Amino acid sequence: MLALHYIENDAPFPPVDEALSEPNGLLAFGADLSPRRLFSAYSQGIFPWFSDDEPLLWWSPDPRAIIELDSFCASKSLRKLARQQRYVVTLNHAFERVINACSSIPRATPSGDDVSNETWITEDMKNAYSQLHGLGLAHSVEVWEEDELVGGLYGVGIGKVYCGESMFHTKNNTSKLAMYALVKHMQKQNMAFIDCQLPTDHLSSLGAITLSRKQFIEKLQANNHTLNSEGELCTNYVTQWQPQVLNL
């Protein structure tokens, strides 16, 4: 029987190729959700995923789903919605409101076989990603109908890669509109791809493909230019994620 790795707060992650195959990608438990730990995790292709009644679990599934920017599939109806300019889409204008909205959305379990109705974005997770946002490493896209937030998404930026965490909508197609605006923004900034974590039919309809974990991490590392030699955010990285209205 394989034992799951336990991580002390100051200990490194085990190699990702030691993750379990069942449940797919479960790598370790323990440690904390400090900004340093989260940045280390995402930089290595690892992310946290747990419920209130579980210990802090860390995952690196194989295969991994990504969206190549030039392969994003925007339907005719989505493009029409964008052209109508019914909504305004912004970047990093309301991170906490987006993550709070996402916390009520059901999500597939890590195995990908079921959907959980439990709130997987715990209060600890909200606080942790809000701290990461305050440091300039977590980013949100918001869709507005006048002053009402009707859709959006949030995730973590690692170099030229956007690691998507969750999205929500209260009006039809507004989460897809947020993704469409994000893709166009990333293309404009010469960024690389979106990490979608686990493959789903919905993501496949948007153009997601799967890579082996090894291929994904190689691709991630080739585009991980987040910090300069002094350990500060690179100027280009800061510029990419400045708060702004996104063009559709």
Polypeptide structure, described:
This protein is α+β, with helices and mostly antiparallel strands. It folds into two domains: 5-59, Leucyl/phenylalanyl-tRNA-protein transferase, N-terminal domain (Alpha-Beta Plaits), CATH 3.30.70.3550; 64-245, Leucyl/phenylalanyl-tRNA-protein transferase, C-terminal domain (Aminopeptidase, 3-Layer(aba) Sandwich). 30% of the residues lie in helices and 26% in strands. The strands form three sheets. It has an eight-stranded mixed sheet, sandwiched between helices. The longest helix has 15 residues, at 174-188. The N and C termini lie far apart (52 Å). The mean pLDDT is 92.
Features:
248 residues, 26% strand, Alpha-Beta Plaits, single chain, four-stranded mixed sheet, alpha+beta, Aminopeptidase, 2 domains, eight-stranded mixed sheet, globular
Task: Kindly summarize this structure in a few lines.
The protein contains 8 helices and 14 strands.
Radius of gyration: 17 Å
| Number of DSSP E strands | 14
Give the structural class: alpha+beta
CATH architectural grouping of the largest domain? 3-Layer(aba) Sandwich
Give the percentage of residues in beta strands: 25-35%
